[in-house]
Automatic annotation (TrEMBL):
One of its GO terms (molecular function) is ABC-type phosphonate transporter activity. PROSITE patterns: ABC_TM1 (PS50928). It is a multi-pass membrane protein. This is Phosphonate ABC transporter, permease protein PhnE. The keyword Oxidoreductase does not apply. InterPro entries: MetI-like, MetI-like_sf, PhnE/PtxC. The gene is phnE.
Length: 294
């Protein structure tokens, strides 16, 4: 037997409709207020930063003309018409590009090892002592807050020109960046394996080794590969401050107005970064898939 559907009185329906409209209106007012505050903050930031749209649009043509100039040889023809003249320094640039990759690799390894050790000390679920966790977190914050170029300038003064300042600068900054990511991964693990290992009489290091590391290792490697991509781009500009790599030739070509050399070096850097991105992306996805399927 079919049951009758009760009908609400008209007054109740009107009350529900009015409440719904009031909620929508309140939400719309909050959204408009948020946009107004955002617009005001943008205007204040532009004012303090001395952003002048007139100057920007007035000089925009210089930027586009420079981009067009770097793709022309000295005789005015496009660089693609004479690859031999365009890539005259290919052997030297490839050697410097290899140096750049080594700087990024060593910086990533040094930073990754430091982040690996400090991440467990910075994780809330692995360290009971608040002072130890606080110290580890603040140190990692310092490492990732100071830009790589600032570290590189300091190390250039200390150790002189060459790849070493670039390696140290990238290593310290990588330690801070990866340390935060690693610590967040550790804080989200299942603590039952760690507690089970500790219940057998294992010490803290053994509990981490057999209870925590198997759960986080694939994510650690994935984040490290991602950071290596970032460090390749970072190492490419370390030469701007004399910290080795292909960036030194790039900044020299820019300063001396060797236009075609600028485009050739940029092309090598872009192609290298693209290849590394493709390779490490496949490796990261494979590792993440293993971690999810564990």
């Amino acid at each position: 037997m079919a049951t009758a559907i009760p009908h609400r009185p008209d007054a109740q329906n009107r009350a529900l409709a009015e409440g719904y409209e009031a909620a929508i209106a309140a939400r719309r007012r909050r959204m408009l207020l948020s946009f107004a505050i955002l617009a005001a903050l943008i205007l204040v930031a532009a004012r303090i930063s001395e952003v002048d749209l007139g100057t920007f649009f007035g000089n925009l043509g210089r930027f586009t003309s420079y981009i067009g100039r770097i793709f022309k040889l000295e005789d005015g023809h496009l660089v693609f018409t004479n690859p031999v003249e365009w890539l005259w320094g290919l052997r030297k640039w490839l050697r410097l590009l290899g140096e750049t990759l080594l700087i990024a690799y060593l910086g990533t390894v040094i930073g990754g090892l430091g982040a690996f050790g400090l991440s467990f000390l910075a994780a809330r679920n692995m360290v009971v002592a608040p002072w130890l966790r606080f110290s580890a977190r603040r140190f990692l914050e310092f490492c990732r807050t100071v830009p790589e170029l600032v570290f590189a300038l300091i190390f250039v003064v200390a150790f002189g020109l060459g790849p070493l300042p670039g390696v140290l600068a990238l290593g310290i900054h990588t330690m801070g960046a990866l340390g935060k990511l690693f610590a967040e991964v550790v804080e989200n693990i299942d603590m039952k394996p760690v507690e089970g290992v500790a219940a057998t009489g294992a010490n803290w290091a053994q509990s981490v080794r057999f209870g925590a590391i198997p759960q986080v290792l694939s994510n650690f490697v994935s984040y490290t590969l991602l950071r290596f991509e970032v460090n390749v781009r970072g190492a490419a500009i370390m030469g701007f401050v004399g910290a080795g790599g292909i960036g030194q030739d790039l900044v020299e070509a820019i300063r001396k107005f060797y236009y075609s050399d600028v485009s050739a070096i940029l092309l090598l850097i872009v192609v290298t970064v693209m290849l590394i991105d493709l390779i490490t992306e496949r490796a990261r996805h494979a590792l993440i898939g293993r971690g999810l399927g564990r």
